[in-house]
Write a structure and sequence with these properties.
Elements: H1 2-19, H2 28-36, E1 41-44, H3 51-64, E2 82-86, H4 90-102, E3 107-110, H5 116-127, E4 133-136, H6 144-152, E5 156-161, H7 180-187, E6 193-198, H8 203-212, E7 219-222, E8 230-236, H9 239-252, E9 257-261, H10 265-277, E10 282-285, H11 291-302, E11 308-311, E12 324-329, H12 336-343, E13 353-359, H13 361-373, H14 382-404, H15 409-424, E14 427-428, E15 447-451, H16 453-466, H17 472-480, H18 485-489, H19 505-517, E16 521-523, E17 531-533, E18 548-552, H20 569-576, H21 592-612, H22 616-619, H23 622-631, H24 636-640, H25 647-662
Bound molecules: adenosine-5'-diphosphate and zinc ion.
Length: 665
Amino acid sequence: MEQADSFQQSACDVLKQRFGYETFRPGQSEIVSAILQGRDCVGVMPTGAGKSICYQVPALVFAYGDQLGSQNEWAFLPAAALTIVISPLVSLMSDQVMALKNSGIAAAYLNSRLTFAQQEEVLSRARAGAYALMYVAPERLADPRFLSFAASSGSIALVAVDEAHCVSQWGQDFRPSYLGIGDFIRSLPVRPVIAAFTATATPRVADDIVRLLGLDGPLRMTTGFDRPNLRFEVEQLSDKKKLARIAARVLANPGESGIVYCSTRKDVERVHEALVAAGARATRYHAGLSHGEREVNQRAFVNDDAPVMVATNAFGMGIDKSNVRYVIHHNMPGSLEAYYQEAGRAGRDGEPSDCVLLWNDSDIATCRFFVEQESGNEALTPEEQQLVRASQRRRLASMANYCMTTDCLRATILRYFGEGEQAGVEQGLGLDAPQGCGNCSNCDGDVDAVDVTVTARSVMRCVHELRGRFGKGIVADVLCGSKSARMREYGLTNKRTYDIVSDSPALVKEIIELLTAGEYLEISEGRYPLVGLGPRAREAATDEFRLYMKRHRKSTAATGRAHMASFGEGVSANMGSSGASNASGAVPLSTEEQQELFERLRQLRKRHADEEGVPPYIVFSDAALRAMCALRPATDDEFLAVSGVGPVKLKRYGKAFLEEINGER
Ligand code: ADP
Ligand code: ZN
């Protein structure tokens, strides 16, 4: 027990001394102390919640134990124990290692990007205790050289598994190499503590993680999925208007970093070209580009040389860029999981950021098509494939519902993820879906909810009467009493639901989509998509049933966060109501002077970053720069008080930044 207490103290010291943070965020301290007490854990935390700290802090306590506090550069001390971090994301690995080194922590990575000789070098240094942390790609677990290193090393104290959902065949990111992790752990001479982390886990995936990684009575920790600093917007726009909307947001603040996601390479090319023509410093990324070009473009983005990235969803998995101020989706993704993961790449530093989703009917049709096209996973039986497909259909419905709902967007997301929490996680941190968050495009009040319940009931009756044998065009034609030849041809004019609504066929089709998104209807796939009753059809027959259609009072084009008075009260009001994840002390810049200083610090940061060959956010986060502008530290001690500044960063950058802040150049 006593040792546990001293570990706790050490953990707090490490957090402050190495990472420059005052307090643990919710969930972090629970996981850190469980690990330090030797207990396995599963951490389910959203992007940006700070999963890395959960294993990095224990790694340092295990590595340097009683030497903590006495040394500034642990990099020169031999580590008593090693933490292995398994991560599928090769680029994230080098970023993490770079960030750790920048804070004076000895770390290395082992993946296929290193030559044979380099890998040998890393392993032999690891044998000598040179590292506290070693990041390895899951493929290395099958490499005899790595295995013999691990088998002969009795000093692996912790194995952290990042993106742990990759072990499950139920998820979208299944990686066969993850199945080898369990065997690897069992092969070790001394069983280390195992900590698994993921941003997305349904109960089923969480169970797979525990079972397949062989976790032993793990602490299951789920933190709230809310990201209070993210503003959510949804807009239904034609393809043409989408482009104008994107350009307006990008050019509204050309220095800001953002990501524009498109569903196809062709769209990436088109949007990228348009943005560049409009004068934006944009780059692009998709699987059709050569490896070299992808690399170069990614670097340009990460280093803020081209702050705007236009990409397919192939981009971002390994990106740890914390100062992304907006993520715009040019197309609707296939699930809220995918959407929230991609949108969640905005604002990892806790600063206000926008997540804008642009969509129209053809996005939904495309997703429907893909659900059916997907060849399926060969490791699954046909029955399992059916199940996977059904769950994809349900996920798509929830995504479409997000586009169409008149409810608070944040509440809609939280409710969606909340289901998983109730069912599968023993210990959660409470997830209160706010009634109205005041920081999403549905809460801001420029949308109206039009009651379409009566027509929706007629639609349900019609689909029932037609027994799911027709597509949505015919259903709409029947209801609206179309005089077309095919009505007679199919004998539809004498249906009871023929000609019973006075709305336009276009509106009826919209209502059909809305009912499908609510799972009252289901649109089957195939060459001619057919409309049938969905799993919740019965509920639509009850008295409580209500359906609202969203109508924009005016276009919100070209607004975005800009209309929230970026640096003024709007933001601080929103930050005030925030919960955990921006507790890091995001500080709004209220005066022109502060904004001007922010700009100067940003340039200074860029100069240092370029000199050292690291991305700017590795030097300091936007949040840290902002805190400097607000606090205006004049002494070393005051500089240390800035969140994100530890002794190593003070030593490295303190002088230059203090001079810039205090105007002695
Ligand atoms: P995740 O892996 O969960 O997506 P990261 O580990 O990359 O998130 O952390 C996101 C950001 O939050 C990083 O910039 C990190 O430095 C910062 N962060 C993490 N923990 C804390 C903390 N306790 N206080 C302040 N900032 C933190
Ligand atoms: Zn809201």
